[in-house]
Each structure stands twice: as C-alpha cells, then as structure tokens.
Amino acid sequence: MKLLVTGGAGFIGSNFIQYWLKKYPQDKIVNLDKLTYAGCLETTKDFSKSKNYKFIKGDIADLKTTQLAMKKVNVVVNFAAESHNDRAIQDPGVFVRTNVLGTQILLEAAKREGVERFHHISTCEVFGELELNKKRAFKEDDSFIPELLITPQKLELIMLSWHTFTLSKFLLPLVIVLTISDLSSFPKKSFRDLSQTS
User: What is the pLDDT of residue 100?
Assistant: First the structure.
C-alpha cells in the first residue's frame, strides 16, 4: 500500500509516519509538507533514509504539486493545517487558504487520482468547550458549536468534505477524525516517549 501523509514534518504527522513504517514496513509513504512554523525536517530524521519514504516540500493548496504527490497513492492522511488562535488573529487568510482551500484541493486531487480512502484529521474544538472538571466527553453526534477563531474554518472544511465526497457522485471513502488536542508540539516529546511511560 502507498500512503500520502500531508503535514508529515509536524509533531503528530511525523510520529504517525514513524509508527506506520515500523508497523507496516512493506508500505510506502510520501510526506508532503510546506515546512512552515509547524513543520521541521528534524522530526523525520528517524525514518528519512528509509527506502519506503519520500519527502516532497510543497503546499496542499497547489493542485499541481498535490496531484503529483498523489500518484499511485491508495490512502491519503491529511494532517496539514494551520493552527494556534493567535496566528489566526494575525493572518486569517492563511488559515482559510490552508485549512479550507487546501483540503478542497486535496480532495479534488484524490478524486482525479482514484484514491481509495481519505482520512482527514481535524479537532474536537468544533464541538465547543467543556468545563475543566466536567464528567462527560464529546460524542460523535454532539452539535457543532465552534467558539475559537480557527474552528469555524475547520468546521467549514468538514462540511465541504462531507458534502463533496460522501453525499455526491464521487463516493470517495472519507474518514474524519476529531482529535483531542492534548499532545505537546515540542520536539522533545513524542508518541515513543509517551509509550515508554505507560
């Protein structure tokens, strides 16, 4: 199997690639990352020399680059996103370009290249906020109540993805994961470090 991982030089994306190559050593991975403030090739050093790994520096909002990176790919895992509310206040246009337009372009490229499955990694922030000591957790069927500045954009691209590829004639299998933001983005911490403490 061949995967395209976007945002694979970021903290979570690079840990996903490392995990996948170790668990499925026969699979091939293409890592497409723009290398902005959130991406760093240092995070890929443990697997960068693997014969089953290829890095492409590029922007998911560029259809030509994205489609080229997606050649003969079976599965797309999209981690690429702008994050941090303070950055959204400084330059909201960058967020819309990457989080909304970039995801739409990825989906279009996936349709053109005949990708078998598309995994979009988003955030539970689209559900709003829970009080710190609240006993309940978010559920899949909870209403979307985005309160932070960046979450309406993430909600918009979720709805775009759902409408365009699940309800339309394209029928691209689409999985949307609403993750909990509880892992540090500091390079010193990793999934490997977390697993050693459990």
Answer: 72
- Using one digit for the tens of pLDDT, what is the confidence trace for 86-137? 666 676 666 666 777 788 888 889 989 999 998 887 765 566 666 667 776 6
Q: Is a pLDDT exceeding 50 seen at residue 177?
A: yes
Helices (H) and strands (E) in the chain, counts: 7, 6
Q: Which residues sit opposite 179 in a β-bridge? A: 123
- Spell out the domain ranges in the chain: 2-197
* C-alpha 122: how far from chain center: 7
**Chain mean position to CA 123:** 10
- DSSP symbol at 143: P
Q: Answer for the pair 99, 154: CB distance below 8 angstroms, yes or no.
A: yes
Please list, in sequence order, all residues whose beta carbon lies within 8 angstroms of the beta carbon of residue 162, skipping any fewer than 6 positions away.
Answer: 174, 176
53 three-state secondary structure: strand
Using DSSP's 3-state secondary structure scheme, residue 122 falls into strand
3-state secondary structure of 186: coil
Architecture label for domain 2-197: 3-Layer(aba) Sandwich (3.40)
Q: Look at residue 186 and tell me whether its pLDDT is greater than 50.
A: no
The predicted pLDDT at position 87 comes to 63
pTM of the model: 0.73
**Quick one: DSSP state of residue 125?**
G
Closest CA to 155 of 122, 188, 186, 132: 122
